[in-house]
Amino acid sequence: MTTTYAALLRGINVSGHKKVPMGELRTLLTELGHSDVQTYLQSGNVTFAAASGAEENALAAELEQAIEKHFGFRVDCLVRGGPYLRAVAGACPFPAAELEARQLHVTFFSEPVGPDRFAAIDQAAFLPEEFRLGDRALYLYAPQGLGRSRLADALSRPRILQGITATTRNWNTVVKLVELTRD
């Protein structure tokens, strides 16, 4: 029995840095013994089937090691199963159907994060931008898009994210990953 997972690679193929061709990434996952490997966009989204009950952190560590060995640089990876991705999409606190995809983002975290980590951020100072915490995820509403978001900059400060891996996807990508991980 298998489960479909999504691997979210952090910071690849950005401005010519950490180039990971998607064809090579698919081959790498297949060589690791995974099946039904598909990539989505060039920004580090790949889905694959692995044994049901496989531990997400172990799958991520295996992929990180394989990428470093093959490409010669480290890439942080998060692996999440389809049920988790569906739960994240279903728990969105913002009206996703009414917003443009560029306005809504989800930052996935390597572990649960409490509100105390973000206590220093004065949310009122960033309105109409807003964020809400979910299960190992942060939902960000940025009406002008992520590139113009002052709140996104504040949320990504190293002291806030210290000790965890975080990677952000826009709402279209979240929805597509939900679709691609349906068993």
From TrEMBL:
Superkingdom of the organism of origin: Bacteria
InterPro entries in the cross-refs: DUF1697 (IPR012545)
Descriptive protein name: DUF1697 domain-containing protein
Species whose genome carries this gene: Streptomyces ficellus
